[in-house]
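Could you join me in thinking about how sequence relates to backbone shape in a protein? Would you write everything just below, so we can both look at the same thing?
***
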Amino acid sequence: MLSARAKEPGCVGFRNYLELPIAHSSRYIAHTHSDPQHKDIFPGTLSSRPNDPYSYCRPRIMVDRADLLREGPTAWRRLGVRSCSMKAIAERLEKLCGVREDVMCRYQQKSILDNESVTQLNDELFSRFLYPLPRELRDYVPAEPGSLKYQIVVLMQILAVKGAWIDFSLVEWRIRAGQLLWEVPPHLDGDCLDPVPDEGDDGIERKWLLFQILLTGELVLRVDAAVKLGVIAKSKSLLITPQDIYQMNEMRTHQIDWGIISGRRAVENLTFKYSLHEKVEEQPPTAPKSKSSRIKARFSRSKPKVPQTIDSPWHCRLLPRFPMRQLEGLFVFAEALEWPGIEKMKEKLAAKVSNALTDEHSMIMAFDSPLKTTATSHHRLERQDMYRKSLTAKLIHLQVPPDEAEKDMLYLGGWASRSWLSGFIIPGESTNDLLIATLLENDTHALKRLGPIANLYGGFIYQGRSYWSKVCIVGRVLSTFFPRSLCMGWAGCNIMPQDEDGENIINCWVEIASKDNYISRGEARIHQGSKILLESSPLGAEGDLTPRAFSLPIDHQDTECLTTNVCFERLTLSVHGDEGQRGEPGSGIPRKASALVSFKVSQHDSKSELVTFPLTFNVQFISSYTCLPPPGYIAHLCPSASRARSQPSYHRHVHPFVSEDSGGEGDVGETEMLARKLRPSGQPRLPGHPLHTVSYPYRYIPISVLAKMPVLQQLKPRISFMAHPDEFLGFVDPTRRWRRLRRRETYIIDARGGVDKEAYVRAWCSAVGTDAVVARIGRTCLACSIREARAANVPVVLRVGARSCEGGIRASSVSGQPGKAL
């Protein structure tokens, strides 16, 4: 999570960048086999009776969740699950939450075994919720029947069945848990089951998810007890060895791990209670005034009311533990984005939440009453829209506030708002999605103007401001102008995009058309540990450790960048050709458009030139690591002028001098501040770390030539020298190897002098399709930036910061002018 945000606006951390190719390679497949790393303990052959308990827990079994729920208890039996009452589920969840609360909130050194013995746990599990394991399968469980390990193994085998449960290892499901818990069918989007009308099973998916949380909670508390008592305390009454823990770890899958995370979030942030209260309290009947009405009332009373389902899943009440804490987080997010009318919204939401917390009935009505999303457009998202892997579109149907929402003191948005306010948030990007969804659903005018179908991977224009997701390339480029308005994956700015006619675009969702930059080049970089080590080693990969093999690259103070003026002009969104067919006007789908960023560039006092870059590729920017100051001091200063002329170009770049009594002028980073504290009087610290010259060649690209450089590879072909890592272990003939191998160069672009230049270079990176490392002066030296770029297999380093120059956003490109919808 921290690596996904990084220090630089619009950037990601080094680890997150290495994980992206793996994340984007995952695809939803309806029928897949079990995890190859999962250890199955049951035999693969089916018994002669396919309806026997646990027949679905065999290897290579894939279950369709919708068919499983439609068939009912007969199919659940094959999974080993009993058809238990909703009251039993709710009461057991309430008890598990109490044990978890004692451990997490009251910091008590206890486990579930302090309340129930192992025998009681076994009887409770296999008599109320699960079927006993058949005799022919007991011999395959590596534990004594009835023991704690035996119960853990059986629970893990059930929860590992593919397709039977909600798979929270898929990022698409992490935001939609609240949809199953609080929204009643028919669902307008998502892979949710729409039951047959008039069958009374409108909450079957809610019951199934609650049962999944129950089994996960049973597993978590048993594992905690096994580790605390059996391994750490080495209890003689509980025979659990470290070897048993290793065996249980072999049975884990990604589905089980993410299920455990989701279950913990549920029991730590929600309270479960079984209650038969109706959704609306019945009022006492009033005496009819006319004779006909009295006769009608008499006959109507003789007819019995259709009772609510006896064992309705809605009888299990899910109420938040910390709603005010979640509300404060929402306010911080809205203030960071500078949301319009935030003070009025804060006052109304705080009053509504306070009113909902007055009594239990108000809490149920505000946080747990069934919701039905209203369809305000003719378009309904299909099931495949949820699983569609795209870096430009992630569509979700939000709840448009009704007209009386402002006066209704118990209305707090749709199921997405319930998810945030209840705290049932699964880690990852779902946190960002739920925050922006809650903000939109509780703004009385936002979704009425924008439309209910939101694109969480794009952006929207609302009330004179534009808001962009960090997943969108536009958000990564424009975030340099408004670093303080970037919060939780969303950036708010006053840059108003324009159409091709030059008119401002207002009140609409946007999907930015960009190409995927994650091209498969063999094995993912994160799995190439030896290459990362060798291509980032401060000693290089050549073996020559003599002083002349190293240089001290430092930034020059009068480079061409400081004499080049760059000023942001406008952001243009162009809808044309096939790109506009996805979201036709009136369909409710966000329009798909190409983004172009224009700048005015001038040299010295020459006439400015308009340069436009299309944001073609969805590139990533990596925030550089903070490097510690070198321990050495400068003992002897050589004449800089003569030495600079005699040395190659990459030896003569020096830091701009920042006076200690300058009153904070310039960009003094963490490294410089630490260096000042450690510097002896009269001896300045080294301005950077040394760099192995042969292993890490680099070249400067002047910022003035970027407009005429549509392809990065036109400077020199990129050739990898790490084809055979074992050659670098024994240095027999280094001279021969240097002649045969060509080193891949790292390109340095000096973007110091203002945020306009940084945005200019980022837009160029998107146009040519290259990722880059963003290294700020004063925080990371040039040598460490080059090594980090080589470790991440990134060809470009952006040097930013150090001093500011005139520039900024022109008044014609900001809010305040009338416009039209896209």
Q: What stands out?
A: The radius of gyration is 31 Å. The chain has 28 helices and 23 strands.
